């Protein structure tokens, strides 16, 4: 999994601080997560091959996560896109986008599909043979979902040399990778674990923004390889976090710790802070493996 | 008049080529003309004191002139704006903005007034003691207006030394500046032109984008100090200009020449051209005083 941060700041876009958008590359997909104003510029700036994006996941309909969507959709049209585009987001997103396209007489010439969300329970949004994408209901001022991207367990690795030396029929290889015992040409059974090895464990990425401190989400993101959790405020502004239904860095770290994730990435910083290092320091009081999101930063998960 | 170009390129926003928005400072006002995606970032970048903007004029509802409006309106809210904001633009603009604010439960806490336009005749949009703003109906794929900003004639200049030496009552000064003859303390009449001088001629700025070649607009912008006229294409792509209802640099110059304006500013360049100088050269074959708009460039009119 490769995560590219296009923007990780809250509220208003500035020249050097872009609001939320990120791209997750996984198993041949390029998923766009949130789409603040200016996202299409950031996609070009960081050389993301954005024509490959076929699925866009919008957490909620605040401008700093959503106002760049209609522009990106329009640009795809101007660039002659033909591939379908799927948008997953809160109810109302379809009307907002289509109204603007209609006013400009700029309907797309490619398939544009909206998948509107209004459930407060986790929902499976996307599945293929290699991964699933599920909503993670969050707790914010308006209806908001995070998203959990989970690889499916890969097939077992086959020790081909050993299989050959044991005279295992090639036609069994597929089943053996799926866990079956092997049978040699002379009819002998060889236990699966003797000629296979464990595949790399499936990875998962959980995106949780925006949300107040919300331990309910722990169960869903437990064990995630990487958790991106918003941290709009530092601890000294805890009251503001509560009032605006955002989280502090410490709260993000508390979720990471409870969920026993591999790594925590912080982001969605309020513009009031000059330096971001304090976010990392405060979080590390509670959870060790913390990284700071920065515009343009790439994480290999 | 001081014109700041925030963006002057057509279609999709890029890191170094912003779509249309400009700020006109005149007689104490700061008018925003069009508001493409990223305009609020450009306002900050070029250090425009944008809290002073009270009137926004939107030519038409294509994304490259309009998609930054809702973000700017939201940012004004986040910055605690209290002053009223007036939006002038095509019918539908109100619904598009309010729907998005509603979805984000982000209604403004300042007065937001929409003045929706649908007339194909020039309309007076704004007037105070010093200037007027009028629509300039254009000819584009969707309903579009340019805008004409006209200073009112200033009062005549009074030669105060001469008035004193002639014993003119101070209480007449106001009327004299407005053109009345003077009366001395001993009852003698002095012709107005003997103690006044001509004020500087009123200036005017005409903004015409987007439009096909449209000589109808000449009558309205005749004699303007400065005309901004879109020139999306060069002459070799004249067929594209016709097809998309845009203008070439030569056509923009032809309008400037017919209207006998003082200066022509070109802009709204298609992204297909590497160098902009060709726009100026082609226009200058027809009209001498041509300038090229560039992002961040300031014109004193």
Tell the overall outline of chain A. globular
How large is the share of residues in beta strands of chain A? 25-35%
Number of separate helices of chain A: 11
- Kindly state the number of beta strands of chain A: 18
Provide mean pLDDT of chain A, rounded: 96
Strand order of the largest sheet of chain A: 6-5-4-3-2-1-18
How far do the termini of chain A sit from each other?
5 Å
Uncertain spans of chain A, ≥5 residues at pLDDT below 50? none
Helix content of chain A: 25-40%
- Helices and strands of chain A: which structural class? alpha/beta
Largest sheet of chain A, in brief, is: 7 strands, mixed
User: H/E order of the elements of chain A?
Assistant: EEEHEHHEHEEEEEHHEEHEEHEHHEHEE
Q: Supply Rg of chain A.
A: 22 Å
List keywords for this structure.
alpha/beta; globular; homodimer; 18 strands; 7-stranded mixed β-sheet; 26% helix; 301 residues
Secondary-structure topology with pairs:
The structure is a homodimer of 301-residue chains.
Chain A: E1 2-7, E2 21-26, E3 29-35, H1 39-45, E4 55-57, H2 63-66, H3 69-78, E5 85-90, H4 93-103, E6 112-117, E7 124-127, E8 131-137, E9 145-151, E10 157-158, H5 160-165, H6 173-177, E11 182-183, E12 189-190, H7 192-195, E13 196-197, E14 204-208, H8 218-221, E15 226-230, H9 238-244, H10 249-259, E16 263-267, H11 277-284, E17 290-292, E18 298-300
Parallel strand pairs in A: 3-4, 4-5, 5-6, 14-15, 15-16, 16-17
Antiparallel strand pairs in A: 1-2, 1-18, 2-3, 7-8, 8-9, 9-14, 10-13, 11-12
């Amino acid at each position: 999994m490769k995560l590219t941060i296009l923007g990780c700041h809250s509220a208003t876009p500035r020249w050097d601080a872009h609001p939320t958008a990120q791209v997750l590359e996984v198993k041949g997909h390029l998923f766009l997560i949130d789409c603040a104003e200016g996202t299409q510029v950031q996609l070009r700036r960081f050389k993301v091959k954005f024509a490959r994006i076929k699925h866009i996941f919008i957490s909620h309909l605040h401008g700093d996560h959503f106002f760049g969507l209609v522009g990106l959709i329009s640009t795809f049209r101007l660039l002659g896109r033909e591939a379908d585009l799927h948008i997953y987001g809160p109810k109302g997103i379809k009307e907002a986008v289509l109204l603007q396209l209609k006013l400009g007489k700029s309907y797309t010439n490619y398939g544009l599909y909206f998948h509107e969300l209004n459930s407060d329970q986790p929902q499976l949004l996307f599945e293929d043979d290699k991964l699933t994408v599920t909503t993670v209901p969050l707790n914010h001022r308006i209806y908001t979902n995070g998203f959990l991207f989970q690889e499916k367990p890969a097939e077992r690795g086959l020790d081909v040399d050993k299989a050959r030396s044991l005279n295992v029929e090639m036609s069994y290889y597929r089943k053996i990778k799926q866990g079956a015992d092997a049978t040699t040409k002379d009819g002998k059974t060889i236990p699966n674990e003797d000629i296979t090895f464990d595949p790399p464990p499936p990875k998962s990425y959980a995106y949780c923004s925006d949300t107040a401190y919300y331990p309910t989400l722990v169960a869903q993101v437990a064990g995630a390889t990487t958790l991106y959790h918003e941290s709009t405020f530092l601890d000294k502004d805890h009251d503001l976090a509560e009032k605006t239904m955002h989280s502090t860095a410490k709260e993000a770290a508390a979720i990471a710790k409870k969920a026993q994730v591999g790594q925590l990435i912080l982001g969605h910083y309020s513009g009031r802070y000059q330096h971001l290092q304090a976010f990392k320091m405060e979080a590390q009081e509670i959870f060790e493996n913390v990284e700071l999101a920065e515009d343009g930063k790439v994480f290999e998960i």
